[in-house]
Amino acid sequence: MTPALKLWLDALKPKPLPVSGLERMRSGLGACLGIGFTALISLLIAKPLGLSPWLVAPLGASAVLVFVVPASPLAQPWSVIGGNTVSAIIGLICAHMIPDPVIAASLAVSLAILAMFATRSLHPPGGAMALLVVLTHTTSPWFALFPAFTNSLLLVSAGIVFNTLTRRNYPHIAAPAPKTEDNSLKRVSAEDIAAALSQMDTLIDIAPDDLEKLLTLSERHAYQRLMDHIRAKDIMTPNPIHVE
Questions:
Q1: pLDDT at 170 > cutoff 60
Q2: For residue range 72-90, what is the model confidence (pLDDT) as tens digits?
Q3: How far apart, in whole angstroms, are the C-alpha atoms of residue 3 and residue 20?
Q4: CA triplet 156, 161, 164: central angle to 5 degrees?
């Protein structure tokens, strides 16, 4: 087996998740309360008006992002609300104009991705939202307002309240990178990160300021690991040469 093939096969294995049991319970509880709140309010709106559907499946994926990875750029309020709503509109257009379900489904997801890029609202469940509209052959323009927009707005509202109460920053505002007394320890700047991301030309699911903070903390830990055991007596000359 070649090293390249071994690396490729290793990449298929499940990776460990460095998350405590308490955080896992927090995420699960948040998703439960968030979907419950969204479903309840949406049902109260839908019943008197005779609206159906009143809750859409892609919202389950949105809940995973909002409550499990609230720091992700893909989970921010504008991404959730804008991504789901824009994708619903794209799905409606494709369902209305393209009779072939295979072509309509393919174009709906593709155009939804492009629309989310254009509106800076990239949100993975948006692709599912566009596909759902096509598969159910929904053509009513009101679907984009209810349930797509309304569900997303309610979920984000629940996410803001729950994450704030459980001390998770949402909408995510990255804390500044810790300052060091020795500026030489901080070798990577925000400009360096921006240039590197541009060179990679791929979407990294972490905010650049969070990435800068992570690198700074990593350098600090590395410095402590490598230098913490060194004492002054180890580097000083025991009998210094001197003159009177």
A1: yes
A2: 999 999 999 999 999 999 9
A3: 33
A4: 115
